[in-house]
Specification:
263 residues; single chain; 8 helices; Rossmann fold
């Protein structure tokens, strides 16, 4: 009896440090919620999303904005027409990745370019939308941007921060495990300007095949408003030259309990 109890305690201690996403085993189909700022942000982990789809996960992608204020195509103008184009590009990409079509919150923008008051209102819209959607989706885990915003983009930072804030506010940190995209020196091209971290803080490493990498590159071709032909070719060259084929994630965690002083 004592021996069996000892084994059980050992397993319970070991479980939190296993390098995999925390999945609830009582669900027949696993659901991952991915929350990003713009259509095309999902390309940062396209290979992983394709892999999830192949494994039978339900992949729910949320795009906070329509990205209607930026394009690389000189023939396109900013505004609602560009927003429509970018939505279609993201649907195209989702089809190629084999995941659900995205949910678009349609928030105008999440920086202060249109004024601080508009930013506050839009940020509240984002938090309210997340508060409503997350329980209805009931994900096994959530992926978003970390404090580096992936590329340090202001709207990336806001979205990742809002997801984190909502989980803390509603006591959902344990209920919906949150993972940030993470980069280390071994998988982040120096010229990309990505936020990198020390490898010891990585909690999940996902390895993907060249087939999955090629599927991600094919999905990226949908975003013609954001990338030139030369951009696509350079991206393909860089990714295929990197044979490590690994994606990293860091789990958000908090320490429970109160103290009367700082350590």
């Amino acid at each position: 009896m004592t021996s069996n109890l000892t084994k059980l305690l050992f397993v319970l201690i070991l479980l939190p440090i296993i390098s995999s996403f925390n999945l609830r085993k009582d669900k027949a189909q696993k659901t991952v919620l991915v929350v990003f700022a713009h259509p095309d942000d999902e390309m940062s982990i396209s290979e992983v999303l394709f892999q999830f789809g192949r494994k039978g996960y339900k992949v729910v992608l949320i795009s906070a904005t329509d990205g209607k204020y930026y394009t690389r195509d000189p023939k396109l103008s900013e505004g609602d027409s560009l927003a429509g184009i970018r939505r279609e590009e993201s649907r195209c990409s989702s089809d190629k990745l084999g995941i659900d079509h995205p949910i678009f919150f349609g928030i105008d923008r999440l920086d202060t370019k249109n004024g601080v008051r508009n930013y506050f209102n839009n940020h509240k819209q984002l938090r309210d939308s997340l508060t409503q959607r997350i329980p209805s989706i009931n994900p096994d885990f959530i992926i978003t941007f970390g404090p580096d915003g992936d590329t340090h983009h202001a709207e990336h930072l806001v979205v990742g921060g809002a997801v984190t804030e909502v989980l803390l506010q509603h006591d959902w940190v344990q209920k919906y495990p949150l993972y940030y995209i993470a980069w280390t020196k071994d998988n982040a091209p120096e010229e990309a300007g990505l936020g990198i971290m020390d490898p010891k803080y990585i909690n999940v490493e996902i390895r993907y095949s060249q087939e999955e990498e090629l599927a991600g590159l094919e999905a990226n071709k949908c975003f013609k408003s954001q990338f030139t032909k030369e951009d696509f070719e350079e991206d393909r060259k860089v990714k295929l030259s990197d044979t490590t084929n690994r994606a990293y994630f860091r789990r958000f965690a908090v320490t429970l309990g109160k103290k009367t002083s700082f350590d």
